[in-house]
What we know:
By secondary structure, this protein is an alpha+beta fold.
Amino acid sequence: MKIVSNSQQCHRGWTLTELLFVMLIMIGLAGLVAGSIGPVKNRVTRYQASAQLGMLATGLADYNSEYGGFPICEDLADSGNILYKTLFGDFDESGKPDWLATDKNDGAVKTFVTKLQPHPNVLDSDPETLPQGTTYVLDLDNGLTVVDPWNMPLGYINFRKGQNSQVPNGGGAKNPTYDLWSFGNDQSFKNEATWITNW
């Protein structure tokens, strides 16, 4: 009788049933991972929007310190454009702060948020072709506009004192100073619970 050592034993391959079982496990794991990507991506995007609002709030506080008030904006359609012009100091919307576009800096126009420099392609391309979240400033119908990570214009309201009967002392409708918010991924603009706000 011939004795076969362990090292000489033949190795049996996987059966079709075992291969199918392993493939089912891998497909199940892939499904779990794919299902969690959407919520994680949404949380990261919301965090980016919150950080952007914080950056703009800091710029607005600096603007207030310099000029003794916040930029006035009474029309929501203009809010992203007003944020861009006043915080970046680009009232002629050339893509550069006004004092850089002239020969002398008389100090009349200041930049409070340097990160609002438009992406070079913004001035020459259709906003729809830019990848989501690539820039804070897009060239929309009402001029260069500060947008959130969903490429939607930000909301900003600051009424003049006495201009709005609902807000007789000026400021925002929710805050005594101003209201600043992102609609988030709310395409209906009605689900306030999903917005990212400063109130």
